[in-house]
């Protein structure tokens, strides 16, 4: 079984981001970048499937700037067999929309013919939570989103999904698209030897022109602002004072 | 302009609060039809939706393949009626987030997730980077498809009397099948619509200690929330998680106990009206967003609070 794992380079999840005062966007130069945490989980799951003999090959893909090569090298060090970079922009500030990403991925799927695509449930920069579902829609494949457990059996995947109120188990026919939730697994750390080995693994480069897709964004960002700041609060010295404030000042307790 | 609102269905019931909030978000755009996709027991949900003020018509589609809200058949259904609408919308809960991006791809349009404000029929506001920035986007798509962050809008009131029109479902694509639901049964208020929320974090130290949070919540009629750390450590179930990857809440009162206040947690609760933080660490980031902060040992504070409140 062949697996495709899309990975995205995003601002590291620990970074407190800065919004440019002119409303032009979020500061992304000279900021620590990493692999999107949900994509690490997707890749980890794919590599575990390979280690269990369920999968035979894991291909990692990233779509963005040349810098996304670093993210793909990380993917290779984590256990992917080979990688594909789609050079889609030279502008670090430009976020490629999920619809365009899904269209490019659909073309790569047509070429690579994987049995399963495992993607993260959302990227922590645009917080869209859409690419996996869009890809499944374009391909006419089944989808299993927000997965916290995956079991592959003859021609299908039994997936436990995290839904509001609890869990839902569904069975989806392969080929399919699965998106990962936080609790699917705990990604491994990268060892030094695996970083060295990753340098020798194949990394193929493609350009947007190879895919014949219209790159015009459907959504035009006109402004990016700081969220409303909360006004400073106060320290209270005791439980009694807290209860008094909540009742008489804030009016949220009676 | 006419809007199609995909009603959120959970366990065969209409999630009325979410639907009513999404309805009030889009009411200014024009007439709103509510689509109910369910198995052969949709009459109650349809009647409930018809009572919401601002609904023109309820479209009820009952078919075995629509049970349990599987994405493929529901998306095919939405697509089959999409051409009659300028906007297609759903509450931004797991149900809508699973289905609407698929619909958008089928129609070759983008999806706009977690909309917090509509400036005009083409201009939307949404949070990015875990709520640390707010983006205004203009859509050039012929049909605008988006999910609504329900906590940003008040629920539309009852008092409507829309008609119910039964429509038929497209053929079942047979791509997936439901196996089982494992739903946590609770008497407590639902987390995303509760007026009060008490949340516990790593500071609780154990599942047993987390009971003190549950006790306090029950005492004030609050829903119980948790940080990711508390969930990962097994103190609380997954669906109690508040944050970027869990639920977004905006109650009147949010009490954070033993929660440091990581960016990802703040993303889920910083729009609460009043935030109370109880933490022993003077430097915990949660204290910077709290309206009332009590620094001290939660193991003495929480029992005292439960007793005196």
TrEMBL record, chain A:
Question: What biological-process GO terms show up in the record?
Answer: carboxylic acid catabolic process
- Please give the organism: Gluconacetobacter johannae
Q: Where is the Electron transfer flavoprotein alpha/beta-subunit N-terminal domain?
A: 23-215
Q: Which named protein is this?
A: Electron transfer flavoprotein subunit beta
How does this chain assemble? Heterodimer of an alpha and a beta subunit.
Check the record and name the Pfam families matching this protein.
Answer: ETF
Give an example GO molecular function: electron transfer activity
Similarity section: Belongs to the ETF beta-subunit/FixA family.
**Keywords assigned by UniProt?**
Electron transport, Transport
Q: Which SUPFAM superfamilies match?
A: Adenine nucleotide alpha hydrolases-like
Q: What does this protein do?
A: The electron transfer flavoprotein serves as a specific electron acceptor for other dehydrogenases. It transfers the electrons to the main respiratory chain via ETF-ubiquinone oxidoreductase (ETF dehydrogenase).
Cofactor(s) annotated in UniProt: AMP
**Domain of life, per lineage:** Bacteria
The record ties this protein, via SMART domains, to: ETF
Automatic annotation (TrEMBL), chain B:
Per UniProt, which keywords does this protein have?
Answer: Electron transport, FAD, Flavoprotein, Transport
Q: So where does FAD get bound?
A: 202, 227-228, 241-245, 258-265, 279
Q: What domain of life does the UniProt record list for this protein's source?
A: Bacteria
Q: Name one GO biological process term.
A: fatty acid beta-oxidation using acyl-CoA dehydrogenase
Q: Which InterPro entries match?
A: DHS-like_NAD/FAD-binding_dom (IPR029035), ETF_a/b_N (IPR014730), ETF_a/FixB (IPR001308), ETF_alpha_N (IPR033947), ETF_asu_C (IPR014731), ETF_asu_C_CS (IPR018206), Rossmann-like_a/b/a_fold (IPR014729)
User: Which cofactors go with this protein?
Assistant: FAD
The keyword Flavoprotein is assigned to this record: yes
Q: Which Gene3D superfamilies match?
A: HUPs, TPP-binding domain
Record domain Electron transfer flavoprotein alpha/beta-subunit N-terminal: where: 3-182
Co-factor binding comment = Binds 1 FAD per dimer.
Asked if the record carries the keyword Transport, the reply is yes
Which terms does the record give in the GO molecular function aspect? electron transfer activity; flavin adenine dinucleotide binding
Q: Which PANTHER family match?
A: ELECTRON TRANSFER FLAVOPROTEIN ALPHA, ELECTRON TRANSFER FLAVOPROTEIN SUBUNIT ALPHA, MITOCHONDRIAL
Function recorded in the entry:
The electron transfer flavoprotein serves as a specific electron acceptor for other dehydrogenases. It transfers the electrons to the main respiratory chain via ETF-ubiquinone oxidoreductase (ETF dehydrogenase).
The family annotation for this protein states: Belongs to the ETF alpha-subunit/FixB family.
Q: What is the name of the protein in this document?
A: Electron transfer flavoprotein subunit alpha
Q: Which organism is it from?
A: Gluconacetobacter johannae
